[in-house]
C-alpha cells in the first residue's frame, strides 16, 4: 500500500510516522510547501518528498492523508475523492456550511471513502464511555459535561485561519458528544470572554467559552473551553445517568488538584494534545489503513464532520447574538436520513 501525506506540520508528521510503522504500508510520500521541514520528517522514516500534487498523482498512491490548513480541506477532499482514492482528513474538514453540505452530497452520491480525524473516538476512555452509555450501564442519560483547555494559546496566525474556538477547539467535544450519547443536539446557548491576548478579539474570537447544549431527548450538556490553562492540557468528559456517572480523562496526569486531604497528589500534567492522545492517533490511523486494505464503512464519516460543524456554527451564532439557537433552523437533514 502507498499512502501520500499532504502537510507535515505537527499532526501530519505524526500521521506519516504512524503510516511508516504499519507493516501493511509499503511506501509513504509527503508533500509540504516547506521542503526543508518535509525532508526532516521523512529522513528517519524512509519516506520520500514530492514537489507538488501532480507528482503525488504520478506516484500513484492508494490513499491520501490531508493534514493541511483547514481552509484547504474541502477542495482537497473532492480532488482526491474524484480520483477514486480513500481520503483521511484532519478536522475541521470545512469552514462554512454551504461548502460542507456540497462536499458531503458529492461524496455520498459517489460512494467515496472519507475518514475524518476525530481522534477522541479512538481514545480508550471515550470508548469506555461510549460502551457504558450504549449498553445501558449508566441507566437513562441525564446530563453530561465536557472540558477542553489548552495550556497556552495558539499563535495569532493560526487563530486567524482556525475558524474560532468553537469550530477549531470545541468541535472535538461536539463530535464526541454525539458519538458517545447517540443523540443529536437540538438547541445551544453560548457565551464567551476575552481574558488574554488581543489577537482573539481582533478576529471575532474568544479565548474562554461556555456552552449549554440540549439533546433531542431533553438531556442538558455543558461544554467549556479555554486557551489559557497554565496547569496543563485538560480534556475531560463526564456522562451521568440514573444508574451512575462515568468520567473520561481523570487519570494521574489530569491538571486538576483535589482540595480533599485524602486525595492522592497529581502527577505531571499532560503538556498538550499530542502526548495526551498518542494512543488514539495511532489507533485512528490503523483504522484508516484497515479501511483502505479491506474496504467497509468509515468509523467517522464526512457527514459526521458536517454535523459537528453545524453545532459549531449554531454555537458561534448564539454567542454573537446572545440568544439560544435551534439547530433545526440551521441544519440540513443528515446524509441517509
Automatic annotation (TrEMBL):
Q: What is this protein called?
A: Myo-inositol 2-dehydrogenase/D-chiro-inositol 1-dehydrogenase
User: Which family is it part of?
Assistant: Belongs to the Gfo/Idh/MocA family.
Provide any one GO MF term from the record: nucleotide binding
- Taxonomic superkingdom: Bacteria
Q: Which organism is it from?
A: Actinokineospora auranticolor
- The question of whether Oxidoreductase is a record keyword is answered with yes
Enumerate the spans annotated as Gfo/Idh/MocA-like oxidoreductase N-terminal domain: 1-118
Q: Which residues form the GFO/IDH/MocA-like oxidoreductase domain?
A: 126-246
Q: Which UniProt keywords apply?
A: Oxidoreductase
